[in-house]
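hey so i finally got around to running the thing on that chain from the lab meeting. sorry it took forever, my laptop kept dying and i had to restart like 3 times. anyway pasting the input first so we r on the same page abt which one it is
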Amino acid sequence: MRALLVVNPAATTTSARTRDVLIHALASEMKLDAVSTEYRGHARDLGRRAAESADIDLVVALGGDGTVNEVVNGLLHHGPDPDGLPLLAVVPGGSTNVFARALGLPNDAVEATGAILDALAARRERTVGLGLASGTPGTEDEGVPARWFTFCAGFGFDAGVIGRVEQQRERGRRSTHALYLRQAARAFLGEPNRRSGMITLERPGADPVRDLVLSIVCNTAPWTYLGNRPVYAAPEASFDTALDVLSLSRLSTAAMARYATQLLTSTPERGPRGRHAVSLHDLTDFTLHSKVPLPFQMDGDHLGLRTSVTFTGVRRALRVIV
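ok and heres what got predicted. didnt touch it at all, straight out
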């Protein structure tokens, strides 16, 4: 087997020495080409070249969820090939690693590499579904390129929090869970539409759901992690189904406290609920519209402001080593 290893040298939880050890371990079992990313979007470019090459059987992503997202978008640049879905392995190297952990991989990079080598020896893999977000025809976002996501997307409040965190990281702050919580509190205090939302969710064959403050689109559960604590925004979400949505129509102080508590205590059986919570399961096609431009994020990457995003759940998009 010939593999391409895409390495993010800025991965927050792996040192250069650890990365060398992982490279040697992988190279002992396969023909391996290792390339370190040098710019934003480089992992996507490498994934695309691998997908277009007849010589690469497997792409291994060593980094966080952002690196994985770029690699996946490169691999699927031309869309899923039903006759031969691309093959991916993930070695977690970021601060959260939601996708890798949702696949059942250890959060430690060395242990995850061992698990991947065991899976390769046993020829163990699975097919997963992914989400695709694109600009909505007939809107000002019509020309926005389509982009795949592995575990979540967000429109509104949660995307605004991620945008704030990225601004802090650009100023030299480390990405920690405490940083996310502080920025969430500040975003809440500055949210102008927390009592009457701007978002409308439209889907075929159903009435629109209006006046939403935020919408979290999940492709798997958990939605994220706080340290080792999994957080379930949509407990039924799965790589084997289409997309799930949790939307909130109110973020008053009382509502925020209630839903934050429900998220922190959520389980695989029970997520947020209440008269201001809207939960939808296994959606293949739907659109989120906003009366004003709102923050948008995918797999924890802030993508700026949008007024409309169309989502598609693709049940068979990628093969992964597990």
